[in-house]
Design a protein that fits this description.
CATH class of the largest domain in chain A: Alpha Beta
Shape of chain B: globular
Helix content of chain A: 25-40%
Shape of chain A: elongated
Number of helices of chain B: 9
Largest sheet of chain B: 2 strands, antiparallel
Distance between the termini of chain A: 90 Å
Radius of gyration of chain B: 18 Å
Structural class of chain A: alpha+beta
Strand content of chain B: under 5%
Number of domains of chain A: 2
Strand order of the largest sheet of chain B: 1-2
Radius of gyration of chain A: 27 Å
Largest interface: A-C, 18 and 20 residues
Number of strands of chain A: 8
Chains: A alpha+beta (281), B mainly alpha (196), C alpha/beta (442)
Oligomer: heterotrimer
Chain lengths: 281, 196, 442
C-alpha cells in the first residue's frame, strides 16, 4: 500500500517540479510571436511555390498578417481558401484574379522541323545556348521539359516534344514562365479557353518553312470577331484583356487555315492523338 | 582507464545509431544538410548529458530508498519517470532555442520536439540504470553517447550532401539510397568491435 | 623587366589538341576575295549596345561610309563594306543561333570608296584624337570577343596600366589568320601596337606568339625594336591565346577572380585589332574587312581570305573552291571555342576569325556517361577550377554550389570537355550555370 502512495507522490512531485521550472523558463525566454502567422500558414497550401513573390508560404503569411499583401495574392489557394484566411484575420480578401499558364506553341515533333541534330544536355536552357537550339523555329517550345521538371504541381506534360499544361492542375504560380528560355509560356486569365498556339513574330513565309501549325497572320479570326483577337506584327493573339473571351464558336467561325487557333481542350486532344477526335474531324 | 573504455565504447564500438540502431528517425530525418545535422547533434548531446545525469540521480536516490528501516523499490516506475524527465528537458531546450537561435529552431523544426521520443535518449538512461553506473559514469556515458550520435549524424549528412549530386537510379532516389548508405556506414562501424 | 631571356613561356593547365590542322591553310598567302553582289552586314557586331542604323532602304552608299552609328560609349560604328544601294534591314541567322538584324547592301560593282578620313601622324597627334579615330573607325576586338577597342584603350583612371600585350598566340587548331597577318604585314601589326601603347601611355609592349609560328616571330623581330615591342615566344598549348593565360605566361601576373586584365595592370589586344588600328589611324580606313581562315579537311582549297563584312559563309566556302564531300559540321571560329552553326546563311562579322568545315567523321555524336573522377579535367583547366565537381553540381541544378566553386571564372575554353574520357558535356553545363547565375543576379 505504501509503495502505491509513494509512487503517486514521486510522479506528482516530479511533474510539479518540472512544471514549475518550465514555467519559469518560459517566462524568462519569452518570444513575442504572432499566433496569426501560424494560423495563416496553416490555411495556405504549403507548396512553397513562390508564385506570390515571397520566399514561401510562411513568408507570405507574415506579409499577409502585417498587411503588406492581401490574401488573394496567393495564386494557388481557391477563392474559398482565400476568404477563409480573410475571415480569420478579419480583413478584406482583396481582388482575386486567377491566372493559368499556357504554352503558346503547337509545334510538336511532327509539326515543326528540326534544323540540326542536338547532342547535349537535355535541358531547354542548355539547348538554347547552343546556336539557339535544334528547333527550326527560334520562338517555339524547345520541348526538353525544363518547365515540366520545375512545376511544383506536376501540371506540365511533355507530349511528343512539346510542353502541354494541364489546366485542371495549373494554379498559375508562374514558375514555368520564369524557367522557359524561349518565353513561350504566358499567364492568361484562368477562364480563357481558346488560344493562338504560336509565339513566332516572324513573317508568314519564314514561319511556314519550318512549322505547319504556325499562325500566318491572315486576320481571319479578327475579321470573325474583331474585339476578341488582336494582331501583333505577323501573329494573332487572343485579346485577353477583353471580355467575353473567345469560345469554341469563335474558333469555328474563324476557320483558322493552319490550326494555330484552338481551344485548350482540342489542343490537348490533338497532341495526345486522341482517336475519338480524329474520327470527328 | 575505465573512463577511456567507457568513452570509446559509447562513441565508436557501441555507437547508438550504427551499432545499437537507436535514434534512427532523426538520423534519417535531419541529415539532409550538414548545418541542421550539426544543430541537431548539439541538441542531442545536450539533452543526453543532462538526461543521463538527472535520470541516474533519480534512479539511484529516488527509486531505491529506505524509510523507517523498510526498503522500497520503485524501479517499475523507471520508464515512466525517465520519459517525464526527458520530455521536460526537451521542452526547456525548445523554449531556450526559440529565443537564443531562432534560425536553428526553425531548421530543426519538428525534430526538436521529437527528441522527446528519440529512443536514443531513453536508451541511454535505461542503459545507465541497467549497467548500474555511478552518477559520474552515467553522465560521461550520456555525453559520449551524444557525441557518438553526433558523429554518425555528421558523417551521414556529409555523405548525403554528396549523394544529392550523384546520379542515382530513380527507384533508389531519396530515402532508399540513404538507407543503403546508412547500412554501409554501419558495417564500417562493425570494424571497431573488439576495441573494448 | 626584360622577360625575353626566358625563351618559352606558358601557364599551368591547358591541353594539346591532337589535331592541329594549321598546315591546311598556313602555307597560303592571304587572298583578296572577289566582289559579291550582295552583302548582309550584321548591325550588332560588338559587345555592348547595338549601333543605330543611319541609312534606309534605297539609299546609295559608298565604301567606308558610315551605315550605323555607335549608340553610347560601349558601342561601335559600322561602315559599308562596298559601294551600292541599301536594300533594307533584314533578319539573318546570327552566329549565336538567334536571328539578328542586318543591313543588306546591293553592290554596284564599282567598290568606290568615299572621301577617306584624314591620315593622322600617330607619333605626334593628341591621344584624344587617336582614340576618337579608333572609335570612329568602329574597331572591335577581332580575336573573338568583339569588345569595342576604344573602350579597352581608355581604362578608368584608377586602374593603373603598365603593360600592353599583343595577342598573336592563335592557339585554336586550324586557324591561321593571325599567323598570315603577322607574317605578311608585320609592320602594320607593330605600328598598331605602338599606337595603342601611346594611347595607354605604357612602355612595356609584348607580342606573344606560340612557337609553332617561328617564321612569324622572325618577320616581327626584324622591325620589333623600331617600335619598342618585345616579341615573346610562347609554349604551344591551348588556350594560350586567352587573355588571362597570356598575361600569366608573359608577365607572371594573375588576374584576380572576376577581374579584368587591367586589374593585373595589363591591356591585351589581338594582332588583327592592332593592324586595324594602324589602318584607321595611319591610312584613315575604317574596319570593313578582315582576314578569315576558311578551312577544314573537306574544303577544296583551304586558305586565308580578306573578306568584307557581311559576306555569307556559303560564299566564303565557294571562294575556297567548295567542298570535296558532304561536311558534317560548320563552325564559326576555331574547333575549340567556335560556335556550331545550323545555317550556311551566317555572315562574316568583325570577329569571325575562321570558317571551319568538319567532315562527317569528325562530328561524332558522343553519348556521355557518369563522371569517373579521373581528374583529367582538373589538370586541363587553365583557370584551376574543378570541372568534374562543377559538372555534377550543375547537373543536379545546385547553382549556388556552382557559384561557390567559381563557375563564373570559367573561360568556356573547352579543355575539360576535350579531355573527358566520359565525354561529359562540361562546357555546356558551365554555360548553363553561368546563364542561370546571371539571370538570378538581375
Amino acid at each position: 500500500m505504501n509503495t502505491i502512495i509513494l509512487a503517486i507522490i514521486l510522479m506528482a512531485g516530479t511533474g510539479l517540479v518540472l512544471g514549475v521550472v518550465i514555467g519559469i523558463f518560459a517566462k524568462l525566454f519569452r518570444v513575442e510571436s504572432d499566433p496569426r502567422v501560424d494560423l495563416v500558414t496553416e490555411l495556405l497550401p504549403g507548396a512553397n511555390c513562390g508564385g506570390c513573390g515571397t520566399a514561401g508560404c510562411s513568408d507570405f503569411a507574415k506579409a499577409v498578417v502585417s498587411g503588406q499583401l492581401p490574401p488573394s495574392k496567393c495564386p494557388v489557394s481557391s477563392s474559398e481558401q482565400v476568404s477563409a484566411i480573410a475571415r480569420a484575420l478579419g480583413i478584406e480578401a482583396g481582388e482575386s484574379f486567377k491566372q493559368k499558364a499556357v504554352v503558346l506553341c503547337g509545334g510538336d515533333r511532327e509539326q515543326t522541323m528540326r534544323l540540326a541534330s542536338y547532342n547535349g544536355v537535355a535541358d531547354c536552357v542548355s539547348a538554347s545556348l547552343v546556336a539557339g537550339g535544334p528547333k527550326g523555329c527560334s520562338y517555339g517550345c524547345l520541348g526538353m521539359g525544363s518547365c515540366a521538371r520545375k512545376c511544383p504541381f506536376g501540371a506540365i506534360e511533355m507530349i511528343n516534344g512539346l510542353a502541354v499544361i494541364h489546366r485542371e492542375l495549373c494554379v498559375g504560380c508562374g514558375t514555368c514562365v520564369a524557367v522557359c528560355p524561349r518565353n513561350v509560356i504566358k499567364l492568361v486569365p484562368a477562364d480563357a479557353e481558346v488560344h493562338v498556339y504560336c509565339n513566332s513574330p516572324l513573317k508568314a513565309p519564314a514561319k511556314r518553312q519550318v512549322c505547319k501549325v504556325a499562325c500566318i497572320g491572315c486576320r481571319k479570326c479578327q475579321k470573325a470577331a474583331p474585339d476578341k483577337f488582336i494582331i501583333e506584327g505577323f501573329k494573332a493573339t487572343v485579346n485577353y484583356a477583353n471580355t467575353p473571351l473567345p469560345t469554341q464558336e469563335d474558333v469555328q467561325a474563324a476557320g483558322c487555315p493552319t490550326g494555330a487557333l484552338l481551344s485548350a481542350e482540342e489542343h490537348l486532344r490533338i497532341e495526345k492523338h486522341d482517336p475519338e477526335w480524329s474520327a470527328e474531324k | 582507464m575505465k573512463y577511456l573504455e567507457l568513452t570509446i565504447g559509447a562513441i565508436l564500438v557501441y555507437n547508438f545509431v550504427l551499432s545499437r540502431f537507436l535514434g534512427i528517425c532523426p538520423f534519417l530525418g535531419v541529415s539532409k544538410r550538414l548545418g541542421t545535422a550539426l544543430g541537431m547533434s548539439g541538441a542531442v548531446i545536450f539533452v543526453m548529458t543532462i538526461a543521463s545525469f538527472i535520470t541516474s540521480l533519480v534512479y539511484r536516490h529516488l527509486l531505491h530508498f529506505t524509510i523507517g528501516g523498510k526498503e522500497y523499490d520503485l524501479s517499475f516506475l523507471q520508464v515512466l519517470l525517465f520519459i517525464l524527465i526527458i520530455a521536460g528537458l526537451v521542452q526547456l531546450i525548445e523554449i531556450m532555442l526559440q529565443k537564443l537561435s531562432p534560425k536553428l529552431y526553425q531548421a530543426l523544426g519538428i525534430y526538436l520536439p521529437l527528441i522527446t521520443t528519440n529512443c536514443a535518449v531513453l536508451g541511454a538512461a535505461t542503459i545507465n540504470a541497467d549497467s548500474n553506473f555511478t552518477v559520474l559514469e552515467a553522465t560521461i556515458f550520456g555525453f559520449c553517447s551524444g557525441v557518438g550520435f553526433a558523429l554518425a549524424l555528421v558523417l551521414f549528412s556529409s555523405l548525403r550532401e554528396r549523394l544529392d549530386l550523384a546520379e542515382v537510379p530513380k527507384p533508389f532516389q531519396g530515402t532508399p539510397i540513404a538507407l543503403i548508405t546508412a547500412g554501409i556506414l554501419a558495417m564500417a562501424f562493425v570494424g571497431f568491435s573488439g576495441l573494448c | 623587366m626584360s622577360k625575353s631571356s626566358r625563351n618559352v613561356m606558358g601557364f599551368d593547365g591547358g591541353i594539346h589538341p591532337s589535331t592541329d590542322g594549321k598546315s591546311l591553310s598556313s602555307g597560303s598567302a592571304v587572298r583578296q576575295a572577289p566582289l559579291l553582289d550582295r552583302y548582309t552586314v550584321v548591325i550588332s557586331e560588338s559587345v555592348g549596345k547595338p549601333p543605330k542604323p543611319v541609312v534606309k532602304a534605297g539609299d546609295e552608299v559608298k565604301k567606308y561610309q558610315l551605315i550605323a552609328a555607335a549608340d553610347g560609349f560601349v558601342s561601335a560604328n559600322l561602315h559599308s563594306p562596298t559601294s551600292g544601294k541599301v536594300v533594307g534591314i533584314v533578319d539573318v541567322p546570327g552566329a549565336m543561333g538567334t536571328p539578328v538584324p542586318a543591313i543588306q547592301i546591293e553592290s554596284d560593282g564599282k567598290d568606290e570608296p568615299c572621301e577617306p578620313m584624314p591620315a593622322l601622324e600617330w607619333r605626334t597627334a593628341p591621344v584624344s584624337d587617336l582614340l576618337k579615330r579608333i572609335s570612329d573607325a568602329g574597331i572591335v576586338g577581332m580575336g573573338g570577343a568583339a569588345f569595342p577597342t576604344h573602350v579597352k584603350l581608355s581604362p578608368p583612371p584608377e586602374k593603373e596600366v603598365d603593360t600592353l600585350i599583343l595577342n598573336g598566340a592563335e592557339c585554336e587548331p586550324y586557324l591561321t589568320a593571325d599567323h598570315r597577318l603577322m607574317l605578311e604585314q608585320p609592320g602594320k601589326v607593330l605600328e598598331g601596337a605602338a599606337i595603342a601603347a601611346r594611347i595607354l601611355g605604357v612602355k612595356n609592349i609584348f607580342l606573344g606568339v606560340e612557337i609553332n609560328k617561328l617564321d612569324a616571330i622572325e618577320a616581327l623581330n626584324k622591325h620589333a625594336a623600331e617600335f619598342g615591342v618585345t616579341v615573346v615566344g610562347l609554349k604551344v598549348q591551348y588556350p594560350q591565346g586567352s587573355e588571362k593565360q597570356l598575361i600569366m605566361a608573359i608577365t607572371g601576373r594573375e588576374v584576380p577572380t572576376g577581374g579584368l586584365p587591367m586589374d593585373a595592370h595589363c591591356v591585351v589586344q589581338n594582332v588583327g585589332t592592332a593592324a586595324a588600328v594602324a589602318d584607321a589611324v595611319i591610312r584613315g580606313i575604317p574596319l570593313v574587312e578582315r582576314i578569315t581562315t576558311v578551312t577544314g579537311e573537306v574544303v577544296k582549297n583551304p586558305g586565308n581570305w580578306m573578306l568584307k563584312l557581311g559576306t555569307p559563309v556559303i560564299k566564303a566556302i565557294e571562294f575556297a573552291g567548295g567542298v570535296t564531300e558532304e561536311p558534317g559540321k560548320l563552325i564559326m571560329g576555331g574547333p575549340m571555342m567556335g560556335f556550331a552553326q545550323r545555317s550556311f546563311d551566317v555572315t562574316i562579322c568583325k570577329n569571325s576569325s575562321g570558317v571551319l568545315l568538319l567532315p562527317v567523321s569528325e562530328s561524332v555524336a558522343y553519348g556521355s556517361t557518369s563522371c569517373i573522377r579521373c581528374g583529367r579535367c582538373v589538370q586541363g583547366c587553365p583557370m584551376n577550377l574543378l570541372p568534374c565537381l562543377l559538372g555534377n553540381v550543375i547537373e543536379s541544378e545546385r547553382f549556388d554550389l556552382a557559384a561557390q566553386n567559381h563557375v563564373m571564372d570559367c573561360l568556356e575554353c573547352g579543355s575539360c570537355a576535350y579531355v573527358c574520357p566520359a565525354h561529359r558535356p562540361l562546357v555546356q553545363h558551365m554555360r548553363r550555370a553561368k546563364a542561370e547565375i546571371r539571370k538570378r543576379k538581375k
